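Troubleshooting: if your tokenizer reports a length mismatch, compare against these two reference records.
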Amino acid sequence: MPVKAGTTIDPRATRARVLASAVQLFYERGVHDVGVDEIAQHAGASKLTIYRNFGSKDGLVEAALRDRSDRIHLWLTDQLAATAPGRERVLALFDLLTVWYARDGYRGCAVVNTAVETRHQDGPVRQLPRLHLARYRDLLERLLTEADIANPAPLARRLLILIEGATTITAIDGDPTAGEDARATAELLLDAAVAGAAGTAEG
């Protein structure tokens, strides 16, 4: 795309604009239905710029997934900092997700959506969703450890299943109350874990 005379080109700003366009369009329509031409037009950049910065469409998809995962986990970490460590911080994670589910244009988790779309492919695009879920498990384990839950890994996995189940149901049904149901179930699991630990200590 030609640049107007007198316009200063900022490569970092151009790359960020392309990435933002890709993240938006991939989320709205999926990675298979959006081509490089459309992303270039949306971002006001050239295809050459996209290939120079990302190497290929797969490289752009990979960068978009990393960006989305980073933003999700940064948002969760920042928001959870407002709640004191312990049981309520674990449950606050589910409250945040319920807020996310209620946002206009919510279509599920972009990272998981892409994992479904690319399930027959190999490479980084397939590995990134696994890393995304691993980050969730790590976050949950940390929150549970702060809440004095012994052996937090099994419970973290169960809570992650609740999160991903609620995420999928909300994306399909369009009803954000699945987040509330997931929170209520998480509360039961937390109480059972605390009660089990207390019973073991007494025995």
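Reference record two:
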Amino acid sequence: MTFVVTTPSFSGPLELLLQLISGHEVDVLDVPLAPIVDAFVATLRDDSLTTSVEGLSEFLLIAAILLEMKSRRLLPGRDLAEPDEEFVGWEERDVLLARLLELRTYAALSDAFVSLFERASRAFPRLRGIDEGFEVHPPDLLAGVTTAQLAGAYLRGIEEKPVPVVRLNHVTVDAVSVAETVVALAQRLPSMGRISFRSLTEGLGSRIEIIVHFLALLELCKLGHVDLGQGATFGDVQIEWLDVSLGLEIGRVDSYEG
């Protein structure tokens, strides 16, 4: 839509006014912009007239160009440029390029609206509500509950709770010490020769006894009375009593605290 403007110095299409100002045939200071904008807004409010998106964007672009031209003339910089140099950037090519960018923006927006409309077309709203006479009654949570039951629940809630006690009377503690096992092994191993740890602990019934025997063997090895060896990874541990001239130091073994 071509928008026609009427000013004291010009009457005609808005595009022609921009061309005349760019060609220095009309002075931009003689053209009041406020009446032009008011007339365009009044046209938009008129329901009998329709304005396209292209027409609206074209008016905004031309109005912005005129406003910048007039602002430069009213507020010049330190170095006043020649009119030809001032308006050299406002060629038709630049105007068309700016208009193309505006139209691309509106085209992208229209594509977004089309996508929203397509998604909305797949929705089916509910056309009717609940049938007349249909009533929904919430359940009575206190139905069948007497005042005596409420009082009992209140008393159970405020009564002092017993302190939890962990009872260990069912746990059996094996009284096996490493020191006693060291002495026992020192008496048995010299007559047993080379023996594996599996054979030594074969008759033991609990895991704690096996652990204590292993710690006792480590203590005897540290004292230099037994030799421990393992032929392969994860293989049986072989135990061999060493023939020492000084014998076992029973007093030192008895003082060991396992």
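Descriptive notes for reference record two:
- Residues 197 and 214 are 8 Å apart (CA to CA).
- The radius of gyration is 52 Å.
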